[in-house]
């Protein structure tokens, strides 16, 4: 499963595959940690949970015909979330 493409995982997750969704979250875990490192310790856990929730929403609503990739969408949305949490 580690070699499965992100696109394939997203398609599976959109069809309700919880294992695929869990794999996506794990693949993004290092990036989530990077974003939360900048938050105050007491806020880091809340921000981490919010970013995971945003990721899940983005997976479920992502459309391939968008003019930008999934990774760009995630980073854009997370940056908005991080700014709001300051």
Automatic annotation (TrEMBL):
One of its GO terms (biological process) is DNA-templated transcription initiation. GO terms for molecular function: DNA-binding transcription factor activity. It comes from the Bacteria. Residues 8-63 form the Helix-turn-helix conjugative transposon-like domain. InterPro entries: HTH_dom_conjug_TS-like, RNA_pol_sigma_r2. This is Helix-turn-helix conjugative transposon-like domain-containing protein. It comes from Tumebacillus flagellatus.
């Amino acid at each position: 499963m580690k070699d499965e493409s992100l696109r394939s995982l997203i398609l599976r997750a959109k069809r309700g595959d919880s294992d695929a969704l869990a794999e996506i979250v794990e693949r993004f875990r290092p990036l989530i940690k990077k974003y939360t490192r900048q938050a105050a310790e007491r806020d880091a856990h809340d921000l981490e949970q919010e970013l995971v929730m945003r990721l899940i929403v983005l997976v479920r609503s992502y459309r391939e015909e968008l003019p930008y990739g999934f990774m760009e969408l995630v980073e854009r949305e997370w940056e908005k979330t991080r700014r709001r949490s300051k």
